[in-house]
Amino acid sequence: MIAVLEKLIQTIDTLSEWTGKTVAWFILLMVIIIVYDVSMRKFFGIGSIQLQELQWHLFALVFLFGAAYTLKYDEHVRVDIFYQSRWMNTRRRAWVNMLGGLFLLTPFCLLILNSAWPFVKLSFDFAEGSPDPGGLPYRFLLKSAIPVGFLLLMLQGIAESLKGLVFLLSDKK
Fold first, then answer.
1. Domain range annotation of the chain
2. Cα dihedral 32/62/66/111 (nearest 10)
């Protein structure tokens, strides 16, 4: 049973690793676009609504698709006042990670997934684009990243919970 769980964990970790490393390139692209856009505005007085929107579209993708990668490396936001205390040994941390993933993170992700579907569907139905003149079309594609990002986060949360379970089932202290 533990071997099956470890294989599932490895599969999810690989997916999170791949999406995280892929989306990291968006940060470089975003920096290049920002430098170009600011330079054009500063030195030539030429601004671009499309470039400004592209910046925040890329940021949204980095945030949504990078969340699972961040969770995989335990770099997410949490209240470390208890988690890092002397009272919290490795076994207790495994319990916190397992139960937190199952009873807090997974239901939250399911709530967002359930809430996002009508939002995304409506955006697709109207082929939503930017409301700004000269803005980017196909905003519905960006909005479809919301359920994808939260699905990836939920999967990684399940993997983290399973890591805690595997640790607790093993004889490690």
1. 2-169
2. 180
